[in-house]
Every structure is written in C-alpha cells, then in structure tokens.
C-alpha cells in the first residue's frame, strides 16, 4: 500500500460495512489513491477478518513493526510477484522466515507450479474457473483459435539450482549435513512469449529491475515488433488472441489501455489458475527440470543456457503445450472447477 496502511484499512472497514465486496472496495480505493493503493488479495484478507467479527484495524501500540502491517506487506509482495520465494520475502521485509510461512499459512496460500495460490479456492473462484473454461471450450469448438494464441509469463531463473535430496540413515546414526542454499540466491527475471510454433520473444531483466505497468507496456511494444517480424501471418489474417495471467502489471488500467491501443484481443483467464497457464504447466516446468543441478556463472551464461534450451526444443514441444489447453478446460468443467493434478 502506497498510502498510510492504517488509513486504507479504515476505508476497507467502511466499505465492508456498506456491503461492498473486496473487489468493489479495491476499485473504489484505487480510483482515489491510485492503482498501487491496495490489491484485491489484501482487501480479501481484511474482509475475511471483518467477517470473523474482528474489526480492529489500528496498528498495535508497541515497538517493532505491527503484525497487521507485516501481513499487508507480505501479501503485497505476493501480489507483485507471484513467483517470489518465502525466503526472499523474509529478506526484503527484514523479518524471520518462519513468520512469513506462518502468515502465508494463515492466509491460506500455498505454492502450485511455483506460483502462490489460495490453498482452497472460494466458491466464486470455482465458478469463475468453470464458467471461463466452458466459454473457451465452446468458442474453440465453433472456431478453433489455439493456433492464433500468443501466451507469455515471467519466471525467476536462479544461477545456482541446487537439488535437495532426502538422505536415509540408520536409527541412532547422525544425519548427513548438507549446506543450505543462500537465502538470497543470485537470480534474473525472465519474461517470455510464445505460441504453438515456438518462442516469439524473451527478455532477461537487468538486476534490480522489477515489472510494473510502465515497464510491462514497454515490453508489449517490443513483443509487437517481434510478432510482426516472426509471425506476420498473425497480423495479416484474423489477428491473434493474447493470453496472460492476472498479475497486477498485466491487468492494470495502464496495461488495459495499451492493449486496447494495440488492438489485441485478450483471452479470459480465471484468477489463481497457474494450472491453466501454458507457461506455468508446460514451458517453465520443463525449463526447471532442465535447470536442476545446473550452476550458471553469470547473466551471460544464463542467457546462453536459455537460448540453447529454447532452440533445442522441437516444434512439437510448443504445440503440445498450447494444444493441451482444450483438454485442461474440459477437465476443469468435469471436476467442478478444482485444481488439476499434474
């Protein structure tokens, strides 16, 4: 929250008592204070607190950072980067790692496909997944569009990809000690966009560079140039459908306006659904399996590794990742919206 946290929480309580839901409250606050004032996820956490009968929003009068503020900041970190590790959150907020884990557990979050998602989907989440998947299924049956789809996402690439292995020991025998990886491993953010034929465009961000709405819109312009060069048929025919998840930089007002200017059709994607994002369930999964045990000496080494990884994958690999979406949509409908088991 960019404004005073306590002030925002009082407004959330006021809007809750007026009968607004978390999304409506978030929209009203952000219209006044700006897009970064509060996220839907943080609002949902406070609304859950209010429903339990606890309306205390005032910072506790004691030394140290208030617990409620820590919760806000932890949820903000996840909202800004759904791939962030709990160790990195602890380091950036200067709090104990177990504190982060405790708050995430209380908030009902877990990691799925390296993405933070609610442990249990709400009824609305389940219905959104069913309705969106059913709509996309019917559309694809009438007019197949998966070969016109461009999808993209972000992933942290670590330089040291240690694989922790379970060791067995006899009763009474000391366990083998294995050095833990550093709490803040060197890493670089990868942004990548691809379709059923292969990689269209990717970028490795500079150290310290984060993805906000302004930077993401700049990336979209570079993606546009790459599509015009590598996939001119998508521009010259019916156009393409653009798929992305619901991370804040992807869905902000600035980004929506930029996508409108570009004339791109944005495909619906249900919230909290990495199991329906081709990058998460297919590309990044294969990439991480390839990286396990690999040590990269520098950013240049990382660049070379990724370039080779993308080039060595046959077209069938990318085709399978995109074309399997229809089957996944059907499974979500068949199992009443619950997460797909990989």
From TrEMBL:
InterPro entries cross-referenced by the UniProt entry:
Mos1_HTH, RNaseH_sf, Transposase-MT_Hybrid, Transposase_1, Transposase_Tc1-like
Pfam name, any one: HTH_Tnp_Tc3_2
Q: Which Gene3D superfamilies match?
A: 1.10.10.1450, Ribonuclease H-like superfamily/Ribonuclease H
Q: State a single Gene Ontology molecular function.
A: DNA topoisomerase binding
Domain Mos1 transposase HTH, chain residue ranges per copy: 6-54
Lineage of the native species? Eukaryota, Metazoa, Ecdysozoa, Arthropoda, Hexapoda
- What domain of life is recorded for the organism? Eukaryota
Q: Which residues form the Transposase Tc1-like domain?
A: 72-133
GO terms for cellular component: condensed chromosome; nucleus; site of double-strand break
UniProt-recorded name of the protein = Putative DD34D transposase
What's one GO BP annotation on this UniProt entry?
double-strand break repair via nonhomologous end joining
